[in-house]
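Thought: the user asked what F-box domain-containing protein looks like in 3D. I have the sequence; next I should run the structure tool and report back without guessing.
Action: structure_tool
Action Input:
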Amino acid sequence: MEKSINAIPHVVIREIFETVDLKTLFKCRRVCHSWNNEIESMKYKRTQKLNIERMLLGIGDNHISIEGTSKSCYYAHSFPKFIGMIRHFESPNILLLFVRNHQNGNMIDSIINGLNIEWCENVKELEIGDLGNISTDKINQVIWKFSNIYYLNISWKNQESVSCSMFLRSLQKLRFLRIYQNLENDNYSNGLFLDNESLDILITHQINNSRLLQHIELWNMKITFTNDEFMNFLTKLSTIPVHQDVLTTIPKCVNAQIDEIVYISFLSCQFENPILTNLQHFCSENVYSFRIAQTSFEILID
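Observation:
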């Protein structure tokens, strides 16, 4: 077999390898030693690690798909195959993690255990959605794996009563946070909630690192923090010096601009404690929006 393959002209083999997709190239490496050695010696971009801006990991009950562009999609049906595939990719700046018809955490465990720390630390923006029946604890393990991100967007149908502090504790560099919770029958009792501890964690991260926080957008969540704690949070946030990254870089996933103002929005949220009287004018149709300027004279701006 290998003798007949070696009869193919060297130039022809190289031309074929250059035109096939990455999935086919992986298979070619297993055909014979000569083909594997030929692919290893090639300096074409295809044989190096792929560097893509945005990667989508689709998780099903028995597979993980890796999508880099509209023309490429690679499937792994086991943990070893996923490890073998992902090592050919550089860390993307933007990682989208979607769970499709996944009833257990086996493939989620592949993500948690299969990606090395350095690869995860280079990811800057993380979106997680369509989580099905995956537990908040399992999702929290994923977020801890990507603790270097400055953008987090979670969309899911959660039925566990859990504080946002669980997710926020590891995200010291967080700048943009968006959580959309799909509730059944407007049942706020089962789901994520923002409490005093969550505010404490957010403000502690800012004090330790100078102020990075730029945008918080929460949908359909229960808000349990006290008014005193919230006012204390706003006051501290308005006086912490702005981090240089806020003035120089903008995440790819959001329609944002370089701005010193912090935007906080509660959309269709349920407040356990009535909002402070002097903040009522920031409310319109159950949408509460606060813009916090970097000034010691005025905390809130219309």
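Thought: the tool returned a structure. Summarizing for the user.
Final Answer: Structure for F-box domain-containing protein predicted. The first strand starts at residue 54 and ends at 59. The two ends are 76 Å apart (CA to CA).
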